Amino acid sequence: MAEMETLGKIKHRNLVPLLGYCKVGEERLLVYEYMPFGSLEEVLADVLTWEERKKIARGAAKGLCFLHHNCIPHIIHRDMKSSNVLLDKEMEARVSDFGMARLISALDTHLSVSTLAGTPGYVPPEYYQSFRCTAKGDVYSLGVVLLELVTGKRPTDKEDFGDTNLVGWVKMMVRQGKQIEVIDPDLLPTQVRGSKDNHDHQQQQEEEEDEEKEAGEEVKEMVRYLEITLQCVDDFPSKRPNMLQVVAMLRELNITS
Question: Model-level pTM?
Fold first, then answer.
């Protein structure tokens, strides 16, 4: 329970506070602070704006980054998924559920485990071969969460993906140059059509041009976001960015928007 002792002392804006824990035999109970908006998995069923999705992505990334780079010893989460990203009253993302978390020395590259941790659709491919958990494995799992945010799809939906999964489907679509078709239709702006009351034709035309330009920039930003997520879910762990780099890329995306 060393992990729980450590996590109980950690305070960060993007981590759900662990208030207490107990263990009886093989049963473990973790007590967290209540998050009024529930989990990301639940709110993805609603229509979230692009700004809201970016905010959630940044928050989840910051929380995981803190575990990887600011905690001593470092912490590998091992079960990053949308149901473990909770939302507080300000819709700020907070990483939760540390039941599978493990401490790792800054000098170690991995931890060898006897059983496979994680949830289907989020587990990095190398875990099935090596049973070694790494920080880059967490990066992959977060990448799947980021893909959920931009596509609006669940990681393992046979109706959408057949024999593959969300990651495989997105990679296939991008190879075919269909990046826009990957993006959640609810996020894609529509062109302004029809007349507007109390506007002359010239003013209406100027407003339409401005809105179309703004919409085009937003779509470009979504494509750039998609590129970041694909780096996170690269098949090769060594090619994935670390969490400091992920946070920096998402921050830059927000600055340039």
Answer: 0.85
